[in-house]
Design goal:
homodimer, 274 residues, alpha/beta, 8-stranded mixed beta sheet, 8 strands
């Protein structure tokens, strides 16, 4: 579904490239309708190779575009917002992909009643299978939400959360968990190698199995544990593995990891028994 | 890539439906070129609703088709093969999806030098994101392998293994592991719920994160542990979760599960410390 807006990015790094790349390849926004800013010409070379226009002038991006993505590092953001504040008008939409920065902080730094949408995309947006969690700021209307949804859906699952605070939870569940899943794939591959499969074969088979299993959870209406039960035939080979996972407290360990990442995001003190 | 062959299925259950469904929806084989047999008219209703012709006569399937899938339960297979042996000619290709039955056993029961391809599809073939591991029998030529590949690729990743014995390994790695992955998704969702996300949101976000992470492993050339390291920023939230997994021996537990399933498949004795 193509959208006829000019889209700007403050920041031309990985996040800009992933989001803009998704917009372009899905036909949602034409490359010529996208402009990005960076601090150096070198920082613009990648986006320019994608057909996106580049500039060193943040204010130019804000003036030309109706939707502007804030895609700079958190410590850079306050300076950038102060710089562009005057150019921002209340008919624009600011979409933040800046980690840990609230709608209120952004609204405060801009100092205008501009609509802001806070989002948290995760790493797999780069393969168009990501999660983008979002929460609208004070001045967002349903049509802003709908616009942002159209622009970001090409990246994967776009999800408005019940409250802004839950973005910290998604930071653990969707932002950090890819690392845990990469570890699981690697452990599966190691097991395959240990039992005689060549590494490359084991790694591909493990990753494809993970992809397909996730797809089943997404597409089938049954509870994941019902899907697990469905594949455990009586006295069979699968329940043997399930037994080993249960004995080892596998699900508790996974919960520990996700919860640990969330609590770290929330600034809680980390305590361990040694 | 469409293939102009008549394809038959002995057995019209889940496996037949998944494989035939993949062939039809990918345009590889026209539905009118597919016929399946079952023991009762009731057993044919599902495939007929897909547009596939059904019969109670196994020999009719053999006579009409050049590629025949053996898709019955292991204990049914010997009787079926004896029944159809006479009708089998050496210009046909038998593709077995019968669990635990070797090429040699099938060749012996048919009693002819017919090409046989042993395959092991896993559960996610039903969402076209499965793994099909395979090993060709004595009389398979490269063109039989190519034909089988074309027919089964719509289901996901088709992989000829270095040896037939490794099919038992893939049984654990790809056949059983979906259960372990469903458990991981459920544990991730539980963690999200514990930290305040509604169940449905947590479950979708967890499953999509798993799908996207697997897709990154499949599409990026880097080692999974390099991908994991890439998302662990210094002193950050992700490495906190990784620490918890490492302390708990997460990867060892996952290896235990896969290895346990493989060894059970191989008929080894299961021993545990209690």
């Amino acid at each position: 579904m193509s959208v006829d807006v000019k889209v700007g990015f403050l920041g031309a790094g990985n996040m800009c490239q992933s989001i803009a790349g998704g917009m372009i390849s899905s036909g949602t926004v034409k490359a010529e309708n996208i402009i990005a800013s960076a601090r150096t010409e070198g920082g613009l070379s990648k986006v320019r190779s994608m057909g996106i226009r580049g500039t060193l002038d943040n204010c130019q991006v804000v003036k030309e575009c109706s939707v502007i993505f804030l895609a700079v590092k958190p410590h850079i953001l306050p300076g950038v917002l102060k710089q562009i504040a005057e150019a921002v008008t209340e008919d624009k939409l600011l979409v933040s992909v800046v980690n840990g920065t609230t709608n209120k902080e952004i609204e405060g730094l801009v100092g205008k009643s501009v609509p802001v949408m806070r989002t948290l995309p995760n790493t797999p947006v780069q393969v168009k299978s990501g999660v983008v969690a979002a929460y609208p700021g004070t001045h967002c209307t349903p049509s802003h939400t709908a616009l942002c949804t159209s622009l970001m859906e090409p990246l994967g699952l776009f999800s408005i959360l019940p409250s802004e605070g839950l973005i910290d939870v998604v930071s653990g569940l969707c932002g950090s968990s890819p690392a845990f899943l990469f570890m699981m794939v690697d452990a599966m591959a190691d097991a395959g190698v240990r039992m005689g499969l060549p590494r490359q074969v084991a790694a591909s088979l493990a990753a494809k199995t993970m992809e397909g299993s996730a797809k089943m959870v997404l597409e089938c209406e049954e509870h994941p544990m019902q899907l697990a039960s469905n594949v455990c035939s009586p006295g069979g080979t699968t329940i043997e593995g399930v037994y080993r996972l249960n004995r080892a407290g596998f699900k508790g360990t996974v919960m520990d990891a996700v919860i640990g990442s969330v609590e770290k995001t929330q600034g809680k003190e980390m305590r361990y028994n040694y």
